[in-house]
Specification:
The complex is a heterodimer of chains A (about 150) and B (about 120). With about 150 residues, chain A is of the alpha+beta class. Chain A has four helices and five strands; from the N terminus they run βααββααββ. Classes of the chains: A alpha+beta (about 150), B alpha/beta (about 120).
């Protein structure tokens, strides 16, 4: 059996797309799926779990801040596996999430000193993923997170 | 199996809270209620035994952070023990391990309160 050739840059090898309503009861299922997909790419269990936690936090933010807890609104979660790049995109049509207030909160001590609780999820996302970006459009907003599979040293 | 069950028991002057399952935005309210009830009963020495906690997300960590000030102002503390690798990793990544005392067993965590009191 021949080895599968490496993915070409810019080419999406595999995509898994999930549509789900804005309900926290689905968080665990998405987490399990994310973990399974990351592990299938070769991520260690530890890294798969941190990626899954970041995805769970991003979806929680959409439910709480874009949809203000309203159940049944639409969300799309797209997992893209391309070479060593694991991309997770979370799309919604709720309110735009203002992340600017969290820019300076790079570690937990800020939260502790300021007695803050909100924004902890974004800190987790930043710590667990290599890249976290937000795009806000007129009809749809997106949180995009990327984690790279590093070669063993 | 429910997503989260929380057992609470007394070990001398210490309340041991044992979440079984996972704590995320779906289940954190129950966890928060348990902590709030202990504080309402003036129980400020708390050990969270994580041996059957599969994972904890920001909603659960936020609950701990939200109560820690009032607990420490009352000369108490929240101490954490028996974490699996998943839970420990997330606490370590976030720096929780610098802000909270971590123990590998419940016995050590409970005894640490007795040592503090002496």
């Amino acid at each position: 059996m021949k080895n599968k050739p490496m993915a070409q840059p810019g080419r999406v090898e595999e995509t898994v797309e999930i549509h789900l309503p804005s309900m926290t009861k689905h968080l665990h299922a998405i987490r399990m799926l994310c973990c399974t997909l990351a592990e299938s790419m070769g991520f260690l269990r530890k890294d798969s779990e941190t990626a899954a936690l970041a995805v769970e936090e991003a979806i929680t933010n959409v439910i709480e801040h874009a949809y203000h807890g309203e159940e049944g609104r639409k969300m799309r979660v797209i997992f893209e596996m391309e070479g060593n790049k694991f991309t997770v995109r979370i799309l919604h049509d709720g309110d735009q999430i203002d992340t600017s207030q969290y820019v300076l909160l790079d570690d937990l001590s800020h939260f502790y000193r300021q007695k803050k609780r909100g924004g902890l999820g974004i800190l987790i996302m930043k710590k667990c993923m290599d890249e976290v970006t937000y795009k806000n459009g007129p009809d749809q907003s997106e949180c995009c997170m990327i984690k790279y599979l590093k070669k063993p040293s | 199996m429910p997503d989260l069950r929380i057992d609470v028991r007394s070990q001398g002057t210490v309340a041991v809270v044992e979440p079984i399952g996972f704590i995320n935005a779906h289940t954190a309210k129950d966890f928060e209620t348990v902590l709030q009830n202990l504080i309402n009963q003036n129980q400020h020495n708390i050990v969270i035994n994580c041996r059957d906690l599969a994972y904890i997300a920001s909603a659960g960590l936020g609950a701990i952070m939200g109560f820690i000030d009032v607990i420490r102002e009352n000369n108490g503390d929240i101490r954490i023990c028996s974490m699996n690798e998943t839970v420990f990793n997330i606490l370590e990544v976030l720096g929780f391990t610098h802000l909270y005392s971590i123990f590998d067993t419940e016995d050590k965590a409970v005894r640490s309160f007795e040592e503090t009191a002496q």
